[in-house]
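Chapter summary example.
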Amino acid sequence: MEAQSFRILPAALAAAALSTLAACATPAVTGPVEVTRFVEPAASAQLGQGTIFVETAPGAQADSLALTPYKQAVARELARLGYREAPRADAAQVAQVRVERFVSGPDGQRRGPVSVGVGGSTGSYGSGVGLGLNINLGGGPRETIATRIGVMIRDKQSGTTYWEGRAQFSVSENSQYAEPAASAKAVAEALFRDFPGRNGETIEVKVPE
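The structure predicted for these 209 residues follows.
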């Protein structure tokens, strides 16, 4: 029995080594973040200042822990822009966050969700405008993880939408941005770059490897 176990062990180690080498041979690939913003022209004086509360968008799982890194990343960007985060009761504006993550196959078809709370409908700006995920990551057929985030900044009292932004990107499963915290940071930074942006314009933001 001992002799047999010694014969099996090297084969198992060799298989593990080959698996590791195969994983290392496939480079991690990250697509650019595609960003679209919609701006209410009359709201320019209200954007980037005052108090704001970051919350889950209506229709999402309000207590979803998976949304936490994305809401935190959005809050950091809003603070950088000049907003002061406050409790909802004291905030003049609210930022509603919705997130969707899913696995996409080599053919571009959705394979299944990645566990993240999914937000509700879009706002009044650009309703029905979809962002494509046809990004060629290179390196041959592979499954990718797609992340979509949407943020709406609204006046809390009236519900008027001042600004809406959407961002999305796809990464290979071995990319550092497949992890929620890194993904959240990347899409939030891209979404709020050159805030508020041009109304209806779509840009691509390269993500550092």
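To summarize the output: The chain has one domain: 28-205.
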